[in-house]
């Protein structure tokens, strides 16, 4: 649904905008609408951008670090996924 919007700009800006739109073969309304859409989309952050910087690296003196390192690094993902049997996984620690 389209609505009518009144915008007040400087005379020279309006003249230059009309000339710019005419040169591109589009209406001034569609030019303004496209610019507004672009500005709005730039403000919406992607999932990665929202979470960037939210996590810290684990501290090696944290007791959980040792447990997780042994579980996931030394045993590998195969042991965790159950590909390697429990006795074999226990002998690797």
Model description:
The protein is an all-alpha fold. It folds into two domains: 11-51; 56-93, no CATH class. The chain has six helices and no strands. The radius of gyration is 29 Å and the shape is rod-shaped.
List keywords for this structure.
93 residues; mainly alpha
- Treating each run of at least 4 consecutive H or I residues as one helix, how many helices? 6
Q: In one word, what is the shape?
A: rod-shaped
Look at the helices and sheets and give the structural class: mainly alpha
* Straight-line N-to-C gap: 65 Å
* Chain-averaged pLDDT: 81
* Major sheet attributes: none
Number of domains: 2
- List unreliable stretches of 5+ residues: none
Count all strands and give the number. Answer: 0
Query: Taking Cα atoms only, what radius of gyration do you get, to the nearest Å?
Result: 29 Å
Strand content: under 5%
What is the H/E order?
Answer: HHHHHH
Could you outline the blueprint of secondary structure elements for this entry?
Elements: H1 11-24, H2 28-43, H3 47-51, H4 63-74, H5 76-80, H6 86-91
Could you give a short description of this structure?
62% of the residues lie in helices and 0% in strands. It has helices at 11-24, 28-43, 47-51, 63-74, 76-80, 86-91.
